């Protein structure tokens, strides 16, 4: 059998073999130009963004009110001076949710009395509800809700009086 | 046309032959790639980040393995509550500590004898006296530490020799333990301090010379260590009530970055948490065991060195330290931290070292020496380097490859000596490692190199890289002008946050948070209050070995500027 590498198939195969062997014997030793943002694209990779974090802010009833979620924005509500980010519970606290009244408002009284009526809310331009007329068991109930919210949602701020800021 | 197409596709036996070779080569290239030691997806999320952050601060970061919800591991084993529990009674194998081959039971006996002896002969009282340990690293240091802690007598240690005279002034001890060589220097200092009527008791390790003994003043009582141990051995052992994990058993004095002298109180819980943290540095496939030999360049007077020594004790490994960790010398020589220093630890009667705890200068000189030796076989080294770098780029490194056998094993043996083949992990701490040393170190040592951030106020490492992390960010480091290597995420029992970050930059989302590192967690010790240290003339500041009220919310500012990358690993920035 004459060694006839002249035929195109053989040439192609030979070139392929030479190329692969070259890659095995002389592997590339320079790091990639760009740091990949996916682990599939390279071993030395970095995610593109940091994990999102929420800045702990001080809210007043007026500044809390815009976060009612009607505009697909964040939904916040406050219980006993602690503001929770309940955007994850849009089904409950969004505009069409069962508890939609609470979005953007101080829900302390409603949580204590286990009621979602509008009369549980104080208007935003008035001082915060002092909750002095609540019974001990209602205070207990409210604390239980605070516990539930702390576990399920993010605490992202505190609520103070309108003129305290 | 048909003719030319069939001419093009003419095949013969050679084609089949070449086709088989091509197929084999292709399969080789595709499937014989080295597997990364740790999956890169895990390296993209090394810290668990809190969802909320306070203004001016970054979020709180914890190790991803610990998570935000879980409690910190505070002991390496559930039965280890106080320091003496670190000597496990169920381990009965002998191991060598410096030059002494000893088992846990025998060591426990020596500790009990010394404890009893020192209580009887030096007149110390539990919870009222305190002892200054001025020993270079040796087994007597550990025996003294364990004995004093079991009798609730707080000990004091120094991290640098120049702290001795200020501490003798501000915190005069009831007794001092020192070496025979250092005794004349110590006596000079005591006489210079010249407090009339103050009695000193000094316990000397080794045999003090007759001339020194003759010059001892009447107010100083000298006891020889061997006598103290013998005294305690022959009488019935004094049992003291068991200390509680939150009791302070030692105070370590160090000078911070401003030159101020600070003291930090170590509790039993701090040390057990530090041992757990060091234990967690090692991946499950290569954990510490009794077969290991640990050599350390960190002196036992500091918190990190103590954590390393107690880890060795707990794991039943052999242990020795290097010459540069000796603090109390009579000559003015500063030992250079280089390869000779590393080899000095091997001069002890320990088996060949497997785990090295080094400082950055040790690593730099070691890697330089190994690569220089490797370059002597010029052509092979060019291939070997290239292949090693290509393997590391895939996330794999090993000491068993062809290139190690051809080039690097020989180079390592010429530098480190016979024991070069046993080194299996290197941990760098107590210093700042330059970024450009990292890749050469991985090639030269071909074993996990862990870069850790340490601080005198924390027992054990604060931040440490993943042992199997081989990522290479040299392009990023060059473009952003980072000169120091990554130090990884917080260790398993530390939570960290940065103060003084730029809120607007972070909210925009483009910037990495940069600020001052603050930490909290079981291994973080409580500093002695600042004003206690400043009063040098007014009175005797007593260090009580009692319940130290741990302020759960207190963060300790370590004073290091840190930047956090998107994958949760930290980097020290200037």
TrEMBL record, chain A:
User: Which Pfam family, just one, is annotated for this protein?
Assistant: Cyt-b5
Give start and end of each Cytochrome b5 heme-binding domain: 59-160
**UniProt family annotation:** Belongs to the cytochrome b5 family. MAPR subfamily.
For this record, an example GO cellular component is: endoplasmic reticulum
Q: Which UniProt keywords apply?
A: Endoplasmic reticulum, Heme, Iron, Metal-binding, Signal
Q: Which residues form the signal peptide?
A: 1-23
What name does UniProt use for this protein?
Cytochrome b5-like heme/steroid binding domain-containing protein
- Species this protein is from: Rhodocollybia butyracea
A molecular function (GO) held by this record is: metal ion binding
Automatic annotation (TrEMBL), chain B:
User: What is the protein's name according to its record?
Assistant: AMP-dependent synthetase/ligase domain-containing protein
Q: Does the keyword Methyltransferase apply?
A: no
Q: Give one GO term, molecular function aspect.
A: long-chain fatty acid-CoA ligase activity
Q: Where is the AMP-dependent synthetase/ligase domain?
A: 100-526
Q: One cellular component GO annotation, for this chain's record?
A: endoplasmic reticulum
What is the protein's species of origin? Rhodocollybia butyracea
Q: Give a single Pfam family match.
A: AMP-binding
Which SUPFAM superfamilies does the record cross-reference, listed alphabetically? Acetyl-CoA synthetase-like
- Keywords annotated in UniProt: Membrane, Transmembrane, Transmembrane helix
Entry-linked InterPro entries: AMP-dep_synth/lig_dom, ANL_N_sf
The transmembrane segments are 14-32
């Amino acid at each position: 059998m004459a060694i006839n590498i002249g035929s195109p198939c053989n040439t192609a195969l030979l070139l392929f073999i030479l190329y692969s062997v070259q890659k095995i014997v002389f592997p590339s030793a320079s790091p990639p130009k760009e740091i990949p943002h996916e682990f599939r694209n390279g071993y030395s990779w970095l995610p593109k963004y940091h994990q999102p974090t929420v800045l702990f802010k001080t809210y007043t009833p007026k500044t809390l009110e815009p976060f009612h979620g009607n505009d697909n924005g964040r939904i916040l509500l406050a219980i006993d001076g602690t503001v929770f980010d309940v955007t994850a519970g849009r089904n409950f606290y969004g505009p069409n949710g069962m508890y939609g009244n609470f979005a953007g408002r101080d829900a302390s009284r409603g949580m204590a009395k286990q009621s979602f009526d509008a009369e549980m809310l104080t208007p935003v331009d008035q001082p915060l509800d002092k909750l002095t007329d609540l019974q001990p068991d209602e205070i207990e109930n409210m604390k239980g809700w605070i516990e539930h919210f702390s576990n399920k949602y993010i605490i992202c701020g505190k609520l103070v009086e309108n003129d305290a800021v | 046309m048909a003719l030319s197409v069939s001419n093009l596709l003419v095949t013969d036996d050679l084609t089949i032959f070449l086709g088989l070779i091509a197929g084999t080569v292709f399969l080789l290239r595709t499937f014989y790639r080295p597997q990364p030691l740790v999956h890169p997806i895990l390296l993209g999320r090394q810290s668990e980040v809190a969802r909320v952050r306070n203004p001016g601060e970054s979020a709180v970061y914890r190790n991803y393995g610990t998570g935000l919800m879980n409690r910190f591991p505070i002991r390496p084993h559930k039965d280890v509550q106080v320091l003496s529990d670190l000597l496990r009674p169920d381990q009965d194998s002998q191991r060598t500590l410096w030059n002494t081959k000893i088992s846990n039971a025998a060591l426990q006996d020596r500790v009990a004898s010394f404890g009893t002896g020192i209580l009887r002969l030096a007149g110390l009282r539990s919870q009222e006296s305190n002892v200054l340990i001025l020993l270079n690293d040796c087994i007597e240091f550990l025996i003294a530490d364990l004995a004093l802690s079991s009798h609730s007598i707080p000990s004091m240690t120094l991290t640098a020799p120049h702290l001795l005279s200020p501490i003798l002034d501000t915190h005069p001890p009831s007794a001092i333990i020192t070496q025979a060589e250092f005794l004349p220097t110590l006596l000079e200092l005591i006489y210079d301090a010249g407090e009339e009527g103050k009695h000193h008791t000094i316990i000397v390790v080794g045999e003090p010379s007759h001339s020194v003994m003759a010059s001892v003043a009447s107010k100083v009582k000298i006891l020889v260590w061997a006598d103290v141990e013998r005294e305690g051995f022959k009488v019935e052992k004094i049992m003291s009530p068991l200390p509680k994990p939150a009791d302070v058993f030692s105070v370590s004095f160090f000078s911070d970055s401003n030159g101020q002298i600070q003291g930090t109180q170590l509790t039993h819980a701090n040390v057990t948490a530090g041992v757990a943290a060091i234990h967690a540095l090692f991946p499950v496939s290569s954990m510490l065991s009794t077969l290991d030999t640990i050599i350390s360049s960190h002196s036992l007077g500091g918190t990190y060195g103590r954590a390393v020594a107690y880890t060795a004790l707990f794991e039943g490994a052999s242990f020795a330290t290097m010459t540069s960790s000796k603090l109390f010398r009579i000559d003015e020589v500063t030992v250079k931290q280089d390869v000779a220093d590393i080899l000095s630890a091997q001069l002890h009667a320990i088996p060949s070292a497997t785990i090295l705890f080094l400082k950055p200068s040790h690593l730099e000189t070691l890697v330089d020496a190994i690569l220089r030796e490797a370059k002597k076989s010029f052509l092979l080294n060019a291939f070997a380097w290239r292949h090693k770098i290509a393997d590391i780029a895939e996330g794999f490194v090993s000491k068993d490859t062809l290139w190690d056998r051809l080039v690097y094993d020989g180079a390592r043996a010429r530098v480190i000596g016979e024991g070069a083949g046993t080194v299996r992990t290197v941990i760098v701490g107590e210093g700042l490692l330059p970024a450009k040393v990292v890749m050469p170190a991985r090639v030269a040592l071909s074993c996990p190199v862990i870069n850790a951030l340490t601080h005198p106020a924390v027992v054990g490492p604060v931040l440490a890289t993943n042992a199997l992390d081989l990522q290479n960010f040299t392009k990023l480091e060059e473009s952003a002008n980072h000169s120091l290597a990554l130090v990884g995420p917080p260790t398993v029992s530390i939570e960290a946050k940065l103060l003084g970050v730029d809120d607007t930059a972070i909210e925009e989302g483009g910037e990495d948070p940069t600020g001052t590192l603050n930490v909290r967690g079981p291994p973080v010790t409580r500093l002695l209050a600042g004003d206690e240290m400043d009063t040098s003339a007014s009175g005797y500041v007593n260090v009580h070995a009692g319940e130290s009220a741990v302020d759960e919310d207190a963060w300790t500012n370590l004073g290091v500027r840190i930047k956090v990358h998107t994958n949760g690993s930290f980097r020290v920035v200037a």
